[in-house]
């Protein structure tokens, strides 16, 4: 059994083109980064392709990591940017609804918490724009101003997409629970 290297040492070995260290870095972070790709991209094959591209880009930029802050967070930003580039490339985003056209009604759904796979499946039913903003705001913790800059949209569009995404998710969850009750 081999000893796991600490991050600074692992990075240095990867920069020196040590294949075992590169594999170790992949093994440590790829599963977590794949789950991020799956949240943004509906198609599994596309998510896997983006993961490979993102991890490759990360390996190329390892010497740029300043050892300030979380290495995991640094990789995560690269992967998220790869996902967003893929979405832009395929023009799947339709982020055009104005906040003035949205009327939000707060609602809480009672019941068992959803499993990750169930939640991911429901998120995959959202339109790409909704899913992207929901991920960036709720999961990743970006502010609307940052999301607007990342996606090239207005702050109000980001806000409206989040409201609509939440409403759609609530409707999907309610539908899921009604179907589960009907079969129980």
Assign the structural class, choosing from mainly alpha, mainly beta, alpha/beta, alpha+beta, or little secondary structure.
mainly alpha
- How many strands, which pairing sense, and closed or not: the largest β-sheet? none
Radius of gyration: 19 Å
Helical proportion, percent range: 55-70%
Order of H and E elements: HHHHHHHH
Give the count of helical stretches.
8
Report low-confidence residues grouped into runs of 5 or more.
Answer: 92-111
Give the strand content: under 5%
Please, what is the average pLDDT? 84
Number of strands: 0
Tell me, what's the shape? globular
Ends distance: 47 Å
Q: What's the quaternary structure here? A: single chain
């Amino acid at each position: 059994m081999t000893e796991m290297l600490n991050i600074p040492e692992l990075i240095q070995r990867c920069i020196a083109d040590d294949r075992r260290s590169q594999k170790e870095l992949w093994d440590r972070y790829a599963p977590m980064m794949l789950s991020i790709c799956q949240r943004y991209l509906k198609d599994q094959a596309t998510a896997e392709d983006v993961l490979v591209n993102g991890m490759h880009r990360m390996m190329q930029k390892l010497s740029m990591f300043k050892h300030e802050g979380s290495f995991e967070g640094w990789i995560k930003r690269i992967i998220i940017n790869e996902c967003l580039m893929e979405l832009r490339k395929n023009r799947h985003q339709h982020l055009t609804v104005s906040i003035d056209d949205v009327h939000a009604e707060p609602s809480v759904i009672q019941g068992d918490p959803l499993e990750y796979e169930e939640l991911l499946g429901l998120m995959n039913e959202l339109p790409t724009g909704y899913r992207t903003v929901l991920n960036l705001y709720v999961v990743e913790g970006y502010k609307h101003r940052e999301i607007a800059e990342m996606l090239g949209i207005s702050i109000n569009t980001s806000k409206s997409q989040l409201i609509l995404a939440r409403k759609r998710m609530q409707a999907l969850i309610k539908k899921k629970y009604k179907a589960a009750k009907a079969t129980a």
